[in-house]
Here is the input.
Amino acid sequence: VQLQAYGGGLVNTGGSLRLSCAASGRPFNRYTMGWFRQAPGREREFVATISWRDGITRYADSVKGRFTISRDNAQNTVSLQMNSLKPEDTAAYYCAASRTVLSYAIAEFVFWGQGTLVTVSS
Here is the structure.
């Protein structure tokens, strides 16, 4: 699966952004999709995931209630709606695909897109 993430940018605290990730190359609807992020000087961390089988979602505690992950299997896309953004959300955001039913472990995601940078100004 080839993944292309886009939609990052500069936003003020409290603002919103919508990230999207376009997939190609393999049956998208058989992959659990996830979003991860990596801030400067920090390790990559889980943000959100959505199962290929039943659409179940999971979120990191730090974004729960503010971010929403969704997928459109007809369009081969996964999106991350980010609301009430905070400066600590500043990071490069990566979409990734896993063959598991539901996962949030980095090691279980086998395909990765390039990052899209989100900067939240205070």
Observations:
- The two ends are 36 Å apart (CA to CA).
